[in-house]
Amino acid sequence: MKNKYVFYFLLIYLLFSPAAVFAQEGNVSEVLFQEIANGKTLDIFPFLPAVQLPLGISVHFFMLLISAGLILALFFYGKRNISLKPRGLLVVLENMITFVQDDIVFPIMGEDKGAKWLPFFCTLFFFLLTINLLGLIPCFKTATGNINVTSALAAMILILVFAVGIKNLGIRKFFVNLYPQGTVLPIGIFVAFLEFTGMFLKTAVLSLRLFANMFAGHLAIFSFLMLIFILSPFAGIFAVPFTIFTYLLEVLVSLIQAFVFTLLSCIFITMASSVHE
Amino acid sequence: MDLFKIDPGLAIWTWIVFGITLTILGKFAFPALLSNIKIREKTIAQAINNAVQIEKRLSAIEQEQAEAIKASKAQASEILRQTRNQAENIRKELLEKAEEEAQDILAQTKIKIAEERVAVIQSIKSEIADFVCDASEKVIGKSFVSKDDRDWVKELVEIL
Amino acid sequence: MDLTALSQAIAVIGAGIGIFGGAIGIGMIGAKAMEAIARQPAEKKDIRTNMILMAALIEGLAFFGAIIALLIIFKK
After folding, report:
1. Could you tell me if C64 lies within 8 Å of chain A, comparing CB atoms?
2. Taking 80 as the threshold, does the pLDDT of residue A20 lie above it?
3. C75 to chain B: which residues are within 8 Å by CB?
4. Does residue A1 surpass a pLDDT of 60?
5. Which of A84, A128, B155, C1 has the CA that lies 20 to 30 A from B21?
6. Is residue B101 a part of any domain in this protein?
7. Inside any domain, residue B76
8. For the purposes of burial, counting CB atoms within 10 Å of the CB of B40, is it exposed (0-12), middle (13-18) or buried (19 or more)?
9. Measured CA angle at A13 (ends A59, A236), to 5 deg
10. How many domains does chain C have?
11. CATH (domain of C31)
12. B1 near C CB under 8 A
């Protein structure tokens, strides 16, 4: 089987990539963070010196570019091979789009409004998914494991929440909407304050959740591998299966996190533009 | 600490990359793909609708057929019954006619027979009378019998 | 005793407590979701979506604790 060899190759790659870094540096926690943190270099081949990225762009930005390129390539491939009887990658693409459409956008926003917003959420979902999955390829890094990326995306959602809310309800009604009707004045003001801060808080947590999931997941993968260097080489007997398990779990987590981020941003944007009863 | 290092450049680049991806996809890729999906959905819905309609029509046709078969069967049995009746009638008529004819023929024959018998008896009687006369003439040896006598003998025989 | 070592130890314990709370929450969500699916299998899809959503919300809180602990542990 061809796939088996690919798997072995990936495994060996996975095992050697932190080892190479370890050989260069020496400190365990340093190595751990170098695996995850942003940098200017990308070590593509184990045991070889890291490659300096051109123009001094950081690794996470490089990952963003790669994911954007992959999405564009996938969509244009799909567009070129468009047909009523889809084949190959087009099936995957259309299934993903209908997944976003039927499980995220349409149940929350409704058909009319959802059709307008579908491209945005589809792009968001694919973007997050490709970035999350790219980080799982050995020697690549997760851009979503960087808080700047996730908070940029969450800030975009926050701006959209305000923009859509004000556009749909009007600036006065948008803020009046925060105040629960029929409550006593001091409590009402308190609730309105909570609602207003809640908007910022919810989006902040949105960014933090994605960041923490991806960051901690990769940290867990590398931590299990690092047991080999911390304890003894024979710890690999336990460490490698655990690493593989965590790695496969991360595949699931990256899918779920992309789904949750899209779903929550969809909910926030819909909630802001709908009148409270 | 690298973990929460703030890097506004990366955030701005994230926006830019996402924005460019969204605009390019929204402008070129999404309309075609989404319309394709919608068209396929419509086609599938239409096909299903068509299939349901065809099935309905088929069942209706089947029912019609069954009804037609039933009706024709009933008609056939009716026709059969009628024909049988007719045949029976005709047979009866024929039988009656034949019987009548037979009786007619019988009656005529009887009449004929009676007539013949009368004629035969007549002739036998006249023969007998002649014979008696001839015999008595032979016995006596001469012709004594005149014509009147013969007639007389004949009358006698008639009475006999 | 070294103060940093103490703070690191406490941070680890704090992360453990945070994860404990998250585990209880996710466990309850899972149990209730399974019950709901058993009661109404027709609504399986909706329930699953909401279950994942809620689990992710709680998971975010648990990760808060873990990250704060990590920040303290790896503080220079």
Report:
1. yes
2. no
3. 1
4. no
5. A84
6. yes
7. yes
8. middle
9. 120
10. 1
11. 1.20.20.10
12. yes
- Give pLDDT tens digits for A53-76: 777 678 888 888 889 999 999 888
Mean local confidence (pLDDT), B67-75: 95
Is C52 within a domain?
yes
Task: Tell me, yes or no, if C30 comes closer than 8 A to chain A by beta carbon.
Answer: no
Chain C hits for B4, Cβ within 8 Å: 71
Chain C: touching chains (3 or more CB pairs < 8 Å)? A, B
For A179-235, the DSSP string reads SPTTS-HHHHHHHHHHHHHHHHHHHHHHHHHHHHHHHHHHHHHHHHHHHHHHT-GGG
Distance from CA of A43 to the nearest CA of C (A): 24
The answer to whether C25 contacts chain A (CB < 8 Å) is no
| Domain-located, residue C2 | no
Print the domain residue range for B72. 11-159
- Kindly determine whether residue B21 and residue A97, on different chains, have CB atoms separated by under 8 Å: no
| Residue B90 included in any domain | yes
Report CB contact under 8 Å: C49, A219: no
B41 closest CA partner among A98, A110, C46? A98
Confidence at residue A182, expressed as pLDDT on a 0 to 100 scale: 72
Query: Torsion-angle region of residue A182: left (phi > 0), alpha (psi -120 to 50) or beta?
Result: left
Q: Rounded distance, CA C6 to CA C72, Å?
A: 11
Tell me if A37 and B12 make a contact (CB, 8 A cut-off). no
Render A41-109 in DSSP notation, one character per residue: EE--STTSPPEEPGGG--HHHHHHHHHHHHHHHHHHHHHHT--SS--THHHHHHHHHHHIIIIIIHHHH
The residues in B 3-22 lying below 8 A from C, measured between CB atoms, are: 3-4
> Could you tell me the residue range of the domain that residue C62 belongs to?
27-76
Residue B6 lies in a domain: no
Lowest-pLDDT range of A210-219, A251-260, B76-85:
A210-219
Q: Is residue C50 part of a domain?
A: yes
Residues of C in contact with A208 (CB under 8 A): 60, 63-64, 67
pLDDT digits over A227-237, tens only?
777 777 777 78
- How many structural domains are present in chain B? 1
Nearest CA-CA distance, residue C50 and chain A, Å: 10
Q: Give the pLDDT confidence score for residue C74 in this predicted structure.
A: 72
Provide the shortest C-alpha distance from residue B15 to chain A (in Å): 7
Over the stretch B17-33, which tens digit does the pLDDT of each residue have?
A: 889 988 988 888 888 88
Q: Which residues contact A275 (CB under 8 A, 6 or more apart)?
A: A169, A173, A177
A263 vs C66: CB contact, 8 Å cut-off?
no
